[in-house]
Amino acid sequence: YEGYIIQFKDKSILEKKTELEKTAEKNKDSFLAKVPLIKGFILTPEKVQGELEKYSGDLENNNEKIKGRIIDEISNLQKNKITGDVITGNLVEESNVEILGEFENVFNGIALNISIGEAKEIEKIKGVKKVYPNYMVNITLMDSIPLINADDVWKLDKDGNDCLSSGKECLTGKGITIAIIDTGVDYTHKDLGGCLGINCKVVGGYDFVNNDDNPMDDQGHGTHVAATAAGNGILKGVAPDAKIYAYKVLDARGGGTMEGVIEGIERAVDPNNDDNFEDKVDIISMSLGA
Question: What is the residue-averaged pLDDT of the chain?
Fold first, then answer.
């Protein structure tokens, strides 16, 4: 593993959003929600967005405070630690903490390149829920289409009837978006549309390894996974009419870290990175393991 992932106690933004929406749904049909004088005290669907924006602001402030405590704690630990120079007995003067990643959408926390001793001390800080090793992850292979009977499903409509007989749309993944979190995707492959962009099969993505907007596969595995999920050409994937978002979190050797995987998931729920989750993908595919 490489450093540690620190989870904060506060819920992530999407966890809070789900909680607020469930509460609003319960309130919607209640007697109290229909009484004008006290409706202001009831969480309605219209108020969810406002409450969520307030929570997002509070969460950002809380996270900054907790991060500050963590940096201070590591700084104190390092200052009190005598270096290997036993002759001069020099102390480490400054804290040099490498922040690997910061998250809030699906997972609320940060990833730091710290020692096991520092990780154990951080877990004691108020506001910290759990500390996990930032495990290395690697590619794993997937099985073939006929093994899961996907080709039989293509003949059905949403009611489970023969789509050719019913005249209803067949189940081929039309209108569905799939995030491939892997080594990237070779979007130039004709079975994967041959292009990258809004009118292509691979509509978008991001390269978290090289930090750019070009999620081109330099290993091959992500392309294999994307084709298994949604290829449409000489060979068909599970959902041949689905669209793909490619998130490269594994390098040319097929290796990466859990921190990178979380980065990919965070972006998959907000592809255009505007803090609005309306454009979230429908499915996340990860053919990797640790």
Answer: 89
